[in-house]
Write a structure and sequence with these properties.
CATH superfamily of the largest domain in chain A: Cyclophilin-like
Number of domains of chain B: 2
Number of domains of chain A: 2
Number of helices of chain B: 3
Helix content of chain B: under 10%
Number of strands of chain A: 13
Number of strands of chain B: 20
Structural class of chain B: mainly beta
Largest sheet of chain B: 7 strands, mixed, barrel
Order of helices and strands of chain A: EEHEEHEHHEEEEEEEE
Distance between the termini of chain B: 48 Å
Radius of gyration of chain B: 20 Å
Strand order of the largest sheet of chain A: 1-2-4-3
CATH topology of the largest domain in chain A: Cyclophilin
Radius of gyration of chain A: 18 Å
CATH architecture of the largest domain in chain A: Beta Barrel
Shape of chain B: elongated
Oligomer: heterodimer
Number of helices of chain A: 4
Shape of chain A: elongated
Largest interface: A-B, 35 and 35 residues
Helix content of chain A: 10-25%
Strand order of the largest sheet of chain B: 12-19-16-17-14-13-20
Distance between the termini of chain A: 41 Å
CATH class of the largest domain in chain A: Mainly Beta
Order of helices and strands of chain B: EEHEEEEEEEEEEHEEEEEEEHE
Structural class of chain A: alpha+beta
Strand content of chain B: 25-35%
């Protein structure tokens, strides 16, 4: 594992990893030993942003903290969460049949694959409460729609690239819609506003 | 029941409730948001005895009118323009007292862009994720202020209105505004010519400047690395360079992650000045 620390202004640094797996492992390890003054830990596809309040912790100290996390640390420290979040899905999405055809499998097999694997929230970012889900067991790479939809309904369960996701509210989007859920995934009035927060394990269940 | 209210009769182009924002939720896709000119927010609040982060109104370009229903101390900082209380001219950057029924008008700004109007007690709208700020991208926090909105004012703070708080009142400059730059994570994605071009000047703010980002016009910055960048998290002030080579400075309501390389980051101490730059105005960069 190689880890490069890149500058991002006076109060943040970007840690670059070789793979998403390394980002996830590092995120777990940093989260488990997070000092006061670290305001944001934001995982993304290849990087993890560490933002601090410089009045509480100098950026240099945060850099030392990140460097001292052992290379092998973190690989699945995440076990803390006992059970995966379960999301009921009605598999009747507008793109379900076309996506199955594109992947060369029967619709039932696509549904079985999507609901049969355990997903993990890798990172967020597209919109509040949107989580990019990954799974080692998910066998497909799904091209995005040629032209994104202007309006994807809230609760749409979708896939694109190697990722799964659920649109927390109506928005534009180019992912392929497999189904929908009535579950509330984003509640800004809650202390735990996003169900799909980075690190969470997730299972979709056929409703 | 709030002890008093501020009723907005005319919001102008855009009037938003803002405080110091909601840090700590970026991993959930929520940016920090909050007042763009944080110095103006802190100053206006201090002038009326509020804590620095009390919620205030960020009024873009003026054309704003509101009525107080009770005696209320208030202060206006940030942009510079004709301020009137019941038709009489009042000074910026100074605490003033409105009487029940008093009408406050913020004229069209002659310098700067964003007025900050603080009222003693702060605006007591319900917080969302710990902040009363409107996030214009995520749609979080209080909706943009409409004509007729009665904004609740919070309880009187413990601190009194400072008797003598003389502030040197400097209007935002009309000429070029110089911003300090720190290295960004992807400085090495750009040619030496691009780095020179960034600091050699010729930039001005485009019309595309809001709370999400401020796009600059000038000579395109040339990339050394042509590939695509997997999305990564940004901070306020990140200077992101789009495919056409023109920089956009990402601001408080930015998307949390972006896929364009960030060549530099505007120092936090320069972000307040940037918040007051008008479209067309010249911008220069210096090394922080």
């Amino acid at each position: 594992m190689s880890r490069r620390l890149l500058p991002s202004g006076e109060a943040a640094l970007l840690v670059e990893c070789d793979s998403l797996d390394e980002v996830l492992a590092l995120h777990d390890a940093l989260e488990a030993a997070r000092p006061d003054g670290v305001i944001e830990l934001v995982p993304a596809a290849r990087t993890l942003l560490v933002a601090v309040d410089p009045a509480l912790i100098p950026l240099e100290s945060a850099a030392t903290w990140v460097r001292r996390i052992p290379a092998e640390a973190g690989s699945r420290v995440a076990g803390a969460q006992a059970d995966p979040v379960r999301i009921p899905v009605g598999y009747d999405g507008d793109d379900l049949a076309a996506t199955a055809e594109l992947l060369g499998v029967p619709v039932a097999e696509l549904v079985a694959a999507h609901s049969g694997v355990e997903w993990r929230v890798a990172f967020g970012g597209f919109a509040p409460g949107f989580g990019y889900l990954v799974s080692d067991e998910w066998p497909f790479e799904v091209p995005r729609l040629e032209a994104p939809r202007a309006r994807v309904p809230a609760g749409s369960v979708a896939v694109a690239g190697a990722f799964g996701g659920v649109y927390p509210r109506q928005s534009p989007g180019g992912w392929r819609l497999l189904g929908r859920t009535a579950a509330t995934l984003w509640d800004p009035a809650s202390n735990d506003p996003a169900v799909l927060a980075p690190g969470r394990r997730v299972r979709f269940e056929q409703a | 029941m709030p002890s008093s209210t501020l009723t907005v009769e005319q919001p102008g182009a855009l009037a938003l409730v803002e405080d110091l924002g909601r840090p700590g939720f970026a991993h959930l896709g929520v940016s920090s948001s909050g007042a763009l000119d944080r110095g103006a927010l802190a100053l206006a609040n201090r002038l009326v005895g509020n804590p620095a982060g009390a919620a205030a109104l960020e009024v873009v370009m003026g054309g704003f009118r509101a009525r107080f229903d009770a005696e209320t101390w208030f202060a206006v900082a940030g942009a510079w323009g004709d301020l009137r209380l019941d038709g009489r001219r009042i000074a910026p950057y100074t605490a003033a007292r409105a009487l029940p029924g008093s009408v406050l008008e913020l004229g069209i700004a002659s310098r700067g862009v964003r007025y900050v109007l603080a009222v003693r007690g702060g605006l007591d709208v319900p917080p969302v994720l710990g902040s009363r700020s409107r996030d214009t991208l995520a749609g979080l926090g209080p909706a943009p202020v409409q004509a007729g909105d009665a904004l609740p004012i919070g309880a009187q703070p413990a601190a009194s209105v400072p008797l003598l708080d003389q502030e040197a009142a400097f209007p935002p400059p009309e000429g070029p505004v110089t911003l300090a730059l720190l290295p960004g994570p992807r400085t090495d994605w750009f040619t030496d010519a691009a780095h020179a071009g960034l600091f050699d000047g010729g930039w001005r703010l485009s019309e595309q400047a809001d709370r999400i980002g401020a796009r600059l016009l000038g000579a395109p910055l040339e990339r050394l690395v042509a590939g695509e960048l997997p999305s990564e998290a940004t901070v306020p002030g990140s200077v992101q360079v789009a495919g056409d080579g023109l920089p956009t400075i990402l601001l408080a309501d930015r998307p949390v992650t972006g896929g364009y390389p960030v060549i530099a980051v505007v120092a936090a101490s320069s972000l307040d000045a940037l918040a007051q730059v008008r479209p067309g105005q010249a911008v220069r960069f210096r090394h922080a």
